[in-house]
C-alpha cells in the first residue's frame, strides 16, 4: 500500500507524481522504493530491467507492495522495438507489417494479445502505438514503426491498436504528437523540424491522433519536434500552443499527456532536462518521461527540485502542477479498475506469427523453388536507430538454421560488404538480408556486387521495402521481428 513520507508536503509529492523515471537492474533499488513512498506514481521499464516474464512479474509485484496503484510503463511496440523480448526478438510483427496486411481486426487481436501478456506481468501503461504517418521514406527513426505512409490506413490501425491494447486493461500511450513521420532527423540526436502548412498537418499528421482519441486512448506522448506552423519557437513537448491549445483545446483531449524521453538530445542539448521539464509541465504535459539514459535517484531529485523551485518562484503555476498530478492519479485509477484478470482477452499465442506470415510480399520473375540445402545468410547490417536495442537479434539466419541445419551466417557492412559476402559464401546459395536498402547507398552497392556474380541470390528486405525488388526471390517482411524472420525462412525452406 501507499506509504507517506514524514514531512512530505503536497507540492513535493505532486512534483514526484508527475515523473516517470527509470532505473537499472532487475529488482527495484531502495532509492526507487523510497521515492514511491514519497509520492512517485510511475516507473518506466526498459530492456535492461527485464530478464524473463517471471522476473518481470516479481518486479512489478515488488513495486506494488510499496504503492498498489503505481503506473508501470514500458516501450513495447512489438516488431523492431521490444522490451519484453529484447534478447530474443518479438513474437509480434510491428506496425508496418500490420499496415501491409491492412486487416484492422487482426491489428486489434495482435494488440490485445500483446496487452494480455503485459498485464500478466504487471505492466499497465504501454508507450505505444506509434501513430506517425511515415510520409518521409528517409525517416531514420520511425520507418517500420509506422503503420504506413497513407493517412487513412494509419488512422484506422491506430484506433484498432488502442482498442485492442486497452481491452487487456493496459493503457495505450499514442505517440509522437503531433506527428514524427515527416522528418529526416532522429530526435534522439538532434531537434527535427517539420516545415509544412497547418492545413497539411491537420489533414495528414493529426488524423491518426483524432482516431486514437475517438478510440479512447488513455495517454498521448509528445514529440520533440519543431513545427513552425504551430509554434515557431519551441518544440512540441515544450509548446503550449501544441499541447494546450491544439491537443486539449481544438482536439478536446482530456487524458494524460506524457513527454518523450527528456534526456533525448532534442531537449537535453537545447534546454537541459530540468528547464525542459518545467517548460513541458507549463505547456500542458502531465508526466515527464526520463530514464532511458538517465536512470538514478539523482535525476529524480534534480527534476523534483526543479519543479518545486519553479512553482515557488512563480515560473510554474501551482495549479498546473496540481492538475498534472491529478491526471496521473486518474490514469492510475483507471488501470486499477481495468486490471481485472478475468476481463482480459483470451490467450492467442500464435496471432503474431499469423500476422507476420500475412505481411510477407514476394516478388519473383519465375516460380521459386524452395531450398533443400543449407544456404549462406549474409546480413547487410546498418547501424540501428536508438529506439531499437542493439542486443535485439534480427534476420533469418537463426530460423533457417532450424529449418535447414548447417546454415551459416555472416554480418557485413561498408563498401567491401559485397565482395566479403561472395568470399564468405563460397559455393553456397546466398540469402542476403537487408534493412532499409533505400537509405543506405553502401547496402545497395553491396547487393549490386553480389547479384552480378550470383543472380540466384535471395534478397530479404526487413525494413521499408522502398528499393526496387531484385534477386531470384525478393521477400519484403515489413519489419525485423523474430516472427518476421521465421515467416520469411518458412518461404525460403518451403515449410
Features:
17 helices; alpha/beta; six-stranded parallel sheet; 495 residues; disordered N terminus
Secondary-structure map:
Elements: H1 10-17, E1 19-20, H2 30-38, E2 42-45, H3 53-66, E3 71-74, H4 95-101, H5 104-120, E4 125-126, H6 151-166, E5 171-177, H7 198-214, E6 219-222, H8 240-250, E7 256-258, H9 265-268, H10 273-283, E8 288-289, H11 297-312, H12 318-338, H13 351-359, E9 361-363, E10 376-380, H14 397-403, E11 408-412, H15 417-425, E12 430-434, H16 441-453, E13 458-461, E14 473-476, H17 482-493
Parallel strand pairs: 1-8, 2-3, 3-4, 4-5, 5-6, 6-7, 10-11, 10-12, 12-13, 13-14
Antiparallel strand pairs: 9-14
Helix pairs in contact: 1-11, 1-12, 4-13, 5-6, 6-7, 10-11, 13-17, 14-17, 15-16
Question: Compute the gyration radius: what is it?
Answer: 23 Å
Q: How large is the count of helical segments? A: 17
Query: What's the story with the biggest beta sheet?
Result: 6 strands, parallel
Query: Structural class given helices, strands, pairing?
Result: alpha/beta
Number of strands: 14
Mean pLDDT figure = 94
Ranges where pLDDT stays below 50 over 5 or more residues in a row are 1-7
Kindly, what is the distance between the CA atoms of the first and last residues, rounded to a whole number of angstroms? 52 Å
Based on CA inertia axes, which overall geometry fits? Answer: globular
Strand content: 5-15%
Q: Strand order, biggest sheet? A: 2-3-4-5-6-7
Helical amount: 40-55%
Give structural notes.
The structure is a single chain. This protein is of the alpha/beta class and about 500 residues long. Helices cover about 40% and strands about 10% of the residues. The protein has helices at about 10-15, 30-40, 55-65, 95-100, 105-120, 150-165, 200-215, 240-250, 265-270, 275-285, 295-310, 320-340, 350-360, 395-405, 415-425, 440-455, 480-495; strands spanning about 20, 40-45, 70-75, 125, 170-175, 220, 255-260, 290, 360-365, 375-380, 410, 430-435, 460, 475. The strands form three sheets. It has a six-stranded parallel sheet, with helices on both faces. α16 (about 440-455) links the parallel β12 (about 430-435) and β13.
Amino acid at each position: 500500500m501507499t506509504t507517506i513520507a514524514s514531512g512530505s508536503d503536497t507540492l513535493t509529492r505532486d512534483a514526484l507524481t508527475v515523473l516517470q523515471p527509470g532505473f537499472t537492474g532487475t529488482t527495484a533499488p531502495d532509492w526507487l522504493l523510497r521515492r514511491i513512498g514519497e509520492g512517485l506514481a510511475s516507473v518506466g521499464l526498459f530492456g535492461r530491467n527485464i530478464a524473463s516474464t517471471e522476473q518481470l512479474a516479481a518486479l512489478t509485484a515488488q513495486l506494488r507492495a510499496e504503492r498498489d496503484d503505481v503506473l508501470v510503463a514500458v516501450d513495447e511496440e512489438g516488431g523492431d522495438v521490444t522490451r519484453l523480448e529484447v534478447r530474443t526478438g518479438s513474437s509480434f510483427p510491428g506496425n508496418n507489417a500490420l499496415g501491409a496486411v491492412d486487416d484492422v481486426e487482426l491489428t486489434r487481436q495482435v494488440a490485445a494479445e500483446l496487452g494480455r501478456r503485459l498485464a500478466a506481468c504487471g505492466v499497465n501503461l504501454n508507450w505505444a502505438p506509434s501513430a506517425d504517418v511515415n510520409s518521409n521514406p528517409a525517416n531514420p527513426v520511425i520507418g517500420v514503426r509506422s503503420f504506413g505512409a497513407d493517412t487513412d490506413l494509419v488512422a484506422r490501425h491506430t484506433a484498432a491498436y488502442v482498442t485492442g491494447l486497452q481491452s487487456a486493461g493496459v493503457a495505450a500511450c499514442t505517440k509522437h504528437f503531433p506527428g514524427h513521420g515527416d522528418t529526416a532527423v532522429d530526435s534522439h540526436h538532434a531537434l527535427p523540424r517539420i516545415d509544412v502548412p497547418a492545413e497539411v498537418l491537420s489533414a495528414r499528421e493529426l488524423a491518426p491522433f483524432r482516431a486514437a482519441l475517438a478510440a479512447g486512448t488513455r495517454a498521448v506522448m509528445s514529440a520533440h519536434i519543431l513545427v513552425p506552423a504551430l509554434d515557431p519557437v519551441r518544440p512540441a513537448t515544450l509548446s503550449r500552443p501544441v499541447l494546450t491549445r491544439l491537443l486539449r483545446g481544438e482536439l478536446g483531449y482530456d487524458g494524460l499527456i506524457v513527454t518523450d524521453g527528456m534526456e533525448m538530445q532534442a531537449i537535453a542539448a537545447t534546454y537541459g532536462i530540468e528547464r525542459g521539464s518545467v517548460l513541458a509541465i507549463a505547456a500542458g504535459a502531465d508526466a515527464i518521461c526520463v530514464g532511458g539514459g538517465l536512470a538514478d535517484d539523482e535525476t529524480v531529485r534534480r527534476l523534483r527540485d526543479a519543479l518545486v523551485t519553479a512553482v515557488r518562484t512563480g515560473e510554474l503555476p501551482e495549479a498546473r502542477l496540481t492538475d498534472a498530478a491529478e491526471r496521473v492519479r486518474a490514469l492510475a485509477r483507471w488501470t486499477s479498475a481495468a486490471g481485472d484478470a478475468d476481463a482480459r482477452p483470451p490467450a492467442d499465442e500464435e496471432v503474431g506469427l499469423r500476422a507476420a506470415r500475412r505481411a510477407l510480399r514476394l516478388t519473383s520473375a519465375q516460380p521459386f523453388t524452395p531450398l533443400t540445402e543449407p544456404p549462406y545468410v549474409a546480413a547487410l547490417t546498418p547501424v540501428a536507430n536508438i529506439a531499437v536495442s542493439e542486443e535485439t537479434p534480427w534476420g533469418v539466419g537463426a530460423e533457417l538454421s532450424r529449418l535447414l541445419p548447417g546454415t551459416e551466417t555472416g554480418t557485413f557492412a561498408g563498401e567491401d560488404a559485397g565482395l566479403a559476402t561472395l568470399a564468405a559464401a563460397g559455393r553456397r546459395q546466398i540469402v542476403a538480408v537487408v534493412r532499409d536498402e533505400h537509405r543506405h547507398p553502401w547496402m545497395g552497392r553491396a547487393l549490386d556486387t553480389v547479384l552480378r556474380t550470383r543472380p540466384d541470390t535471395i534478397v530479404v528486405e526487413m525494413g521499408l521495402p522502398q528499393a526496387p525488388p531484385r534477386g531470384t526471390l525478393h521477400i519484403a517482411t515489413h519489419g525485423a521481428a523474430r516472427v518476421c524472420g521465421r515467416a520469411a525462412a518458412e518461404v525460403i525452406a518451403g515449410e
